[in-house]
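Weekend entry, working from home. Most of the wet-lab plans are on hold until the incubator is repaired, so I used the time to fold the two sequences that have been sitting in the queue since the last round of cloning. Logging both here for the record. First:
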Amino acid sequence: MREFLQKVNKTLAWHARRLQRGIRSVRWALAPRPADRPVIVVGCSRAGTTLVYKTLSESRELGSLQRETHDYWTTLHPLADKHWNTHALGVEDASAADRDAVSRYFHAWTGHHRWVDKNNQNGLAVPYLHALFPDAVFVFVKRSPGDNLNSLIEGWRKPDEFATWSNALPASVAVENGTLTQWCFFLAEGWRDYVNAPVEDVAAFQYAAINGAILDARARIPAGQWIEVFYEDFLRDPVATFRRIFEGCGLHFDERLQAHCADVLDIPYNAFSEIRLDKWKDGRNRDKIERVLPKVAKVATRMGY
């Protein structure tokens, strides 16, 4: 009986959400307006962007889908239209139609005109996103190369969770001597050069590509709309670090949010193991990472490492 009631309640809740979404869509159609100062989290995959996104989603001033949105954005701009070369989008890809569609989509699902978004390809599309929403606030999460590369490598070994677009890729993938056959995370220009590479070379390519793209785009964003944060600062003082992010976004950081942030490291947001600094140095990928660290040294220096 309990299971039956739970199933009924779940069905009713689903229909209620659909009805509410429909009502919001009608209201938006009657009085359309662009999104208001959306907050967009960017950074390399496995850099801590989920931690930041989920914590910002706790704000009652922001709407949140509580999930990654890569599927939605690639529906607007299919990878096939760019010959599967990259997830990157530029100013030339932005349009009023896109702005309206995105504004309507987020408002319909969240009920907010101001919302937070995150996915593993937004870092390659900062110029496009800024062109759509000139008042958007960008939060750039940076992670030290050793630990970020380590987590990328571990992610590549979990294709069920992190493989992207592999069923349609116009190239066969045989990473790590052919033991990894599904492309994980995002596509950056030049990815085809790595379909037969050791996994650490792929990780280094992705780390350098997306962080470099974000740093290159930084100059076009007004200083008051750009926040940079080191992942390592969350481990040292999560409350103070999140306070800076919330206040930088123009959001209240009340006692409820402070309490949440004080315990946020106890919440497993896709963490593979214990959260601590320099995990890579005593892990199974140390030799691989040491070999490719010189390949990411330039972008790491630009990031402040």
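Second, folded right after the first finished:
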Amino acid sequence: MVEPLLELRGVNKSFGVVHVLHDVDFAVYPGQVTALVGDNGAGKSTLVKIIAGIYGRDSGEYHFDGKAVEVHGPRDVAALGVEVVYQDLALCDNLDIVENMFLGREETTRLGLDEVTMETRARETLASLSVRTVKSVRQSVASLSGGQRQTVAIAKAVLWNSKVVLLDEPTAALGVAQTRQVLDLVRRLADRGLGVVLISHNMGDVLEVADRITALYLGRVAADVPAKDLTHSQIVELITAGRSGDLGIADPATATV
């Protein structure tokens, strides 16, 4: 069995009297897409923010590359090689693609910004991901389609030699053709050896690109199994009821947030 790149063990998180995550185990493997699924309120966002270093853990362990690590904020997570692409993409419409990809991490010389190096690296990153939908890296982000924006946000995440990329609802509000482009890109990331986490409510997308599926139900892991072992209806049952046949939480009725 391949060792996970990133692994959380026995993670608990509460906000006041509300216990949001209960002894959650979660692993991301190199060269695989792990889909994180669950209904609204299942704890997906909280788990992602713990991985990203935005929230701390009440208890549990954070492992990266086989070693226990201490994470005190997003900078520590970025230094490990973990990048998160949030649903709002965090792109600036008034800047071009290069300026967005290097925002806050600009390359400089003694004379100022190193525009040549940044433009070259941006172009090479997009080319390495086989992105052909962007005409110029100097295009304003305001002129891009939804699929192109998502592509730029993903390219920005992998620009920094990241090992794990988390994608929050990357195909939300996209058309059929744009969704196809993004899903192909997600698969290419895994084929390059990265560990990819796909957070999605679209079970069609999940079953198409995921190698592994982790289902959360009221803050607990209901299942963590290879995607090929699950059907669409089983995933829905795990999400909505915490159990499907012999798979899932032993007694979902006792699961409370």
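Plan for Monday: verify the second prediction. The longest helix spans residues 176-191.
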